[in-house]
Specification:
The protein is of the alpha+beta class. The protein is built from four helices and seven strands. The chain has a seven-stranded mixed sheet with strand order 1-2-3-4-5-7-6, sandwiched between helices.
Length: 160
């Protein structure tokens, strides 16, 4: 993959936060800082992963995900993949790792929000069996001033 080796996941740590913030700025019009990501990671129930190439533990991550699980109801707080690594399975790898973690914790459901115009993300989430359960009209502001809706998606992980 990427012509350099296979990607793997590792736990998101404080040492990754500035690199994660850089990835976030590539992916979002209103990015979060390393400090903001650190505050979220420190909250009860929060966890995250980075994707890196095998044998390159000190290289900048290809992507990261930050999630939270409180009493069996989980949410993806954010996920971002480097521009150079997009469309190569990194988002799927990160989501699969979160789903594995939530399965081991016996979580019941996973929620996330996504821009209605983010077609690559929507394709991934549909493949992962997420279903639309809500919409926040005009939630995201684009650089040109347009506003787009956030779709709230849910995946049931286990039946109560």
């Amino acid at each position: 993959m990427l012509g350099m080796g296979e990607p793997i996941t590792a736990e998101l740590t404080d040492a990754d936060l500035d690199a994660a913030a850089e990835l976030h700025s590539e992916a979002f019009d209103q990015p979060w800082s390393g400090d903001e990501l650190g505050t979220l990671l420190a909250q009860r129930g929060s966890f995250g992963y980075v994707a890196r190439l095998v044998g390159q533990p000190d290289a900048p991550p290809l992507g990261f995900v930050l999630a939270r699980n409180i009493k069996g109801e989980a949410e993806i707080l954010t996920i971002a993949v480097s521009r150079r690594a997009r469309n190569r399975g990194i988002g799927r790898l990160l989501m699969d790792r979160v789903l594995q973690e939530l399965h081991s914790e016996r979580a019941e459901s996973l929620f996330l929000e996504v821009d209605e115009e983010n077609e690559p993300a929507l394709r991934l989430y549909r493949r992962l069996r997420f279903e639309e359960v809500g919409r926040r009209p005009a939630y995201y502001r684009k650089p040109d001033g347009r506003r787009t809706s956030a779709l709230t998606l849910k995946r049931t992980l286990r039946r109560a």
